[in-house]
Amino acid sequence: MDSDHNPDNVFNILVASDVHLGYGEKDPIRGDDSFNTFEEILQLADQREVDLILLGGDLFHDNKPSPQCIHRCMTLLRRYCLGDRPVAVEFLSDQAENFQHCMNPVVNYEDPNLNISIPVYSIHGNHDDPSGFGRIATLDLLSASGLINYFGKWTDLTQIHISPLLLQKGTSRLAIYGLSYIKDERLSRLYKDRKVTMLRPKEYVEDWFNIMVLHQNRVMRGAKNYVPETAIDKFVDLVIWGHEHECRIDPELNPEQGFYVIQPGSPVATSLCEGEAVEKFVTILNIHKKEFNVEKIKLKTVRPFVMDSLNLSNCTLNRTDGLLSDEVQLYLTERVEDLVRRSQDQLTGHRKQPTLPLIRLRVTYSEEMEYFNPIRFGQQFSDKVANPMDMILLKRERKEKKVKSEDLLDKDAIRNTIDNDEEAVGDEWGSRAETVVERYFSEGGDAKQLRVLSVRGLAEAVKRFIDKGDNDAISDITNYQIKKTIKYIQDKKIVADEDTVTEEIENFRLYRLNRSEEETRDAETVLDNRNRNATNGNAEATIVSDSDSDGPGTNGNVPKTTLPSTSRGGRGAARGRGRGSRGSGNSPARGRGSRGGRGARGANSSGNIKEALAVQRTSSRAKPSKVMYISDESD
Questions:
Q1: Residue whose C-alpha is closest to residue 152's, from 134, 164, 135
Q2: Beta strands of 414-543 (E only): which ranges?
Q3: Handedness of CA 66, 68, 72, 75 (dihedral sign)
């Protein structure tokens, strides 16, 4: 982008994601890390006087954060995002459509009761998504308080219509499409069934710079456990990809689709892996018409993190000594000391940067005599590292599995071998809750087979109990599936003798076992029911078939397929605040008196921009379809 562009026509947007406020907040050493870095991000936005902050989900680490966590977040937002600096961005789209899930569907800087200097826009992620009674997310609380503009929330997951936020600054027009976290398997089905639609401005369609913000798996973790970039429409110019924690802040061009991808990553390390060990950045995105550039800014409050790996088989050790583990520990002590010294290179001198580093040393051993207690070993570094208890990660070396010569050209056999190795590693390095449940029952033989409950349903309930703190999930799914089996037996109208009932229960179990995806959808529907806590899980059981709904019912607000064609009056390039009574919206004054009023709502010079949005179908498994518009002329 040319440097001589008029600043009045250039959007300045600070982009961040996966802040994970509250991560480890009870840890006396690491408890403030996420809050310190979030404050640095807000300080950067204030100092650089950006037009808005755009967050890619997971603002909070817990689905139900502690009151202290919410209080600290609100305090920081009030300190840096409220003030008298005028907001130079005009909001053009229908706010009732963009924020239809909010009790007060108004962008916060147009609320006459608030003085907003930096608007914050955010979708939710998988950590802070709405769940439980009423399906209220913590972002809903921040939205109700006027501190955040929460968009991209879906109450009907059978059909997704993404209505963009339409913003204008001078001669530049910006459309932001928000796709908050949806379970990857479900979103994959929706894309496959062509049930994801994106709405585009009908007028001046080629003049809009289109940003898509989403929070999904970018890396393939299974055939349906990620969102392929080819599923995103080609008309999108830039994708802000949340959820992935590795910071890849430089724009990456997708040559097939033609758009760029920015992956901000997480500014705080929530796991000790290679992706978290890279440098942490945020970016200021400058947009002028259809051009953009990025200014990446290194964060200075991030705790130093160094990791390394070694195989003891490659180390020089006296293997004839019976106390081999002692020699191993002496050797590893030197390695850890070296990693601590290396961590000093990451110190920036910022007064709020922690000095105790995170250290992760992955050690592969092959002999039992090499094993030692890693927790006891880490205690000697309690005053030198921030994580002495999990500093060392021991892994037993496994023999490589050989592929038969006749299968060398069989890709499926090779893939199965790789999958088996990865699964074995998962036992030691950690697995997802639902994977552990399914593996437990699948490997336990006939003695561990569930008769009435389904494995997929129980796995989904356990996942929500662990990830979302949903204490009623397991009992609710148990009660529901018992009622479901009883209803099946009653509908069969069989003679109620013990052997026949047992046989029918087994037939029903096999029927459901062969329809695992339906069982998963059924469990999701029950657990997503916003009234299940109030009804104590006594919803009527129903048998799921191929024709059943693929998600929650239409309890919530179903998004419209078209937006109303409304014409609102302009406010001028910037929203001024006068020191005295409410004055003209064009006043540039920055006094702390009453806020200047907005321009009258009437015929706007840019009224054509705010015409109805037209529907465009997104791609399914193939390339995106041709752009379609609702207009008088055929496309």
A1: 164
A2: none
A3: positive
